[in-house]
Design brief:
With 168 residues, the chain is mostly helical. It contains nine helices and no strands.
């Protein structure tokens, strides 16, 4: 194989590239080589390109599955956002698709409030910022309701929630 031209070596390597998305990639590469759009100086350079194209395919799939399973649940938005960012690294999700996954994973109430806003965020960083602010406000209002709710019951002479449960 060493005596053959670089083009001959690449064609020999391509003869072993088969199945699924590899077939499509192979056709594209062959057309680009024939038209002169791309050129490789050595077969090793081509092999590096081949490995780069197909290396980590499983890693990307695992990242996508991890991302699709991720939900905010009882986490704060800050915690969810950090896990989300970690899961997106290496997933190749970006732009609109990334925003849709972020919206899908967040709690429904926050998602509804974000979508009902007048000026919808456009970029993922805007979604992060607004979602964190809404989540912080929601958690603060819940604490405030609990605090004030307990005061009102005490003022009326009603026992607190814990005390009511202990009553016969």
């Amino acid at each position: 194989m060493r005596e053959e031209t670089v083009e001959g070596q690449i064609q020999w390597i391509l003869s072993y590239v088969q199945g699924g998305s590899a077939d499509v990639w192979k056709e594209n590469i062959m057309e680009e080589l024939e038209s002169g759009e791309i050129e490789y100086k050595t077969a090793e350079e081509f092999l590096m390109s081949l490995k780069k194209e197909f290396r980590g395919g499983e890693d990307k799939s695992v990242k996508v599955v991890e991302l699709r399973k991720l939900e905010q649940g009882g986490r704060t938005m800050e915690e969810f956002m950090q896990k989300f960012k970690r899961a997106t690294r290496g997933s190749r999700y970006e732009g609109r698709l990334l925003i849709e996954e972020f919206k899908r994973g967040m709690n429904g109430g926050i998602r509804r409030k974000l979508i009902e806003m007048e000026n919808l965020p456009v970029f993922i960083k805007q979604w992060y910022k607004r979602a964190m602010a809404l989540n912080r406000n929601w958690r603060e209002s819940r604490r405030e309701e609990e605090r004030l709710g307990g005061k009102k019951e005490q003022e009326r002479g009603a026992p607190k929630q814990e005390q009511r449960q202990n009553l016969p």
